[in-house]
UniProtKB/TrEMBL annotation:
<protein>
    <submittedName>
        <fullName>Histidine phosphatase family protein</fullName>
    </submittedName>
</protein>
<dbReference type="InterPro" id="IPR050275">
    <property type="entry name" value="PGM_Phosphatase"/>
</dbReference>
<dbReference type="InterPro" id="IPR001345">
    <property type="entry name" value="PG/BPGM_mutase_AS"/>
</dbReference>
<dbReference type="InterPro" id="IPR013078">
    <property type="entry name" value="His_Pase_superF_clade-1"/>
</dbReference>
<dbReference type="InterPro" id="IPR029033">
    <property type="entry name" value="His_PPase_superfam"/>
</dbReference>
<dbReference type="Pfam" id="PF00300">
    <property type="entry name" value="His_Phos_1"/>
</dbReference>
C-alpha cells in the first residue's frame, strides 16, 4: 500500500434468521429470496459507483459469501475469503430468538447497553472482534498499491466496529453507530495505521427492501 485505500464494506443480504429475529453470530441460516435480490441490487450499486475493484474479500460465512457471489459474477476477479470478517462469536446465543435471550439474560443485555464488553453466550468480546476485523482491513489494504478500492463482504457487527476503529473511538465506540441494513454500503478512507482515516459513508442502502437486524 502506498496511497489512500477506499474500503467498501458490504453487509450481507437478508437471512432467514434476520426475518425470524434470531441471533446469528458465526452460525448461518442462509439468504432469503429477498436477500438474494438484495445481493443483486448491491452488486449493481457497487459496479455503478466503484467500477472494477482492485481486491474483493469476503467473510467465509455463507450469507456473506453468497452476497459476494452475486457481485463476482460480473467481474473477472477472484475473491479472497477471510474468517476474520465473520460476525461476532456469540457462543450459545447463536440461533436463539431475541425474545428468549431477553427473558433469560436481562442483566447481560442491560450491561451491554451501558457499554460493558461482555462475552455474549460465552463467545468473544466486542474488543476481540474489533481487533480481528481491523487487522483484516489493514491486511487487505496492504495487498494493494497506489490509490485503490477494496470491496469487503461482511456483517453488521464487523461494520460497526470497523467504523469505530477507523475513527479511533474507544471500545465500545461502535454502539454510537446504528446497525447497518442488509446489503448496505459503508466506505472507509484508509490512509495507514498512524494516519487519519475517515468514515466517508455509513449504512448507505442499495435497495428499498433492506432492513436492519436488532442485533449483531
Amino acid at each position: 500500500m502506498s496511497g489512500r485505500v477506499r474500503l467498501v464494506l458490504v453487509r450481507h443480504g437478508e437471512s432467514v434468521w434476520n426475518v425470524e429475529e434470531r441471533y446469528q453470530g458465526q452460525a448461518d441460516s442462509g439468504l432469503t429470496a429477498a436477500g438474494r435480490e438484495q445481493a443483486e441490487a448491491a452488486a449493481a450499486a457497487l459496479l455503478d459507483r466503484f467500477g472494477r475493484p482492485d481486491l474483493v474479500v469476503s467473510s467465509d460465512l455463507p450469507r456473506a459469501w453468497d452476497t459476494a457471489t452475486a457481485y463476482l459474477r460480473h467481474l473477472d476477479v477472484e475473491a479472497k475469503q477471510d474468517a476474520r470478517l465473520r460476525e461476532a462469536d456469540i457462543g450459545t446465543w447463536a440461533g436463539r430468538p431475541f425474545t428468549e435471550i431477553a427473558e433469560e439474560h436481562p442483566d447481560d443485555l442491560a450491561a451491554i447497553v451501558r457499554g460493558e464488553d461482555l462475552r455474549r453466550g460465552g463467545g468473544e468480546t466486542f474488543a476481540d472482534m474489533r481487533r480481528r476485523v481491523w487487522q483484516a482491513l489493514v491486511d487487505a489494504a496492504a495487498m494493494t498499491t497506489g490509490d485503490a478500492t477494496v470491496v469487503l463482504f461482511t456483517h453488521g457487527g464487523p461494520i460497526r466496529v470497523a467504523a469505530a476503529a477507523a475513527l479511533r473511538l474507544p471500545v465500545p465506540g461502535h454502539l454510537g453507530f446504528a446497525p447497518p441494513v442488509n446489503a448496505s454500503l459503508t466506505v472507509i478512507g484508509y490512509a495507514g495505521e498512524l494516519k487519519n482515516n475517515a468514515v466517508v459513508e455509513y449504512n448507505a442502502p442499495t435497495t428499498w427492501a433492506a432492513r436492519a437486524a436488532r442485533a449483531d
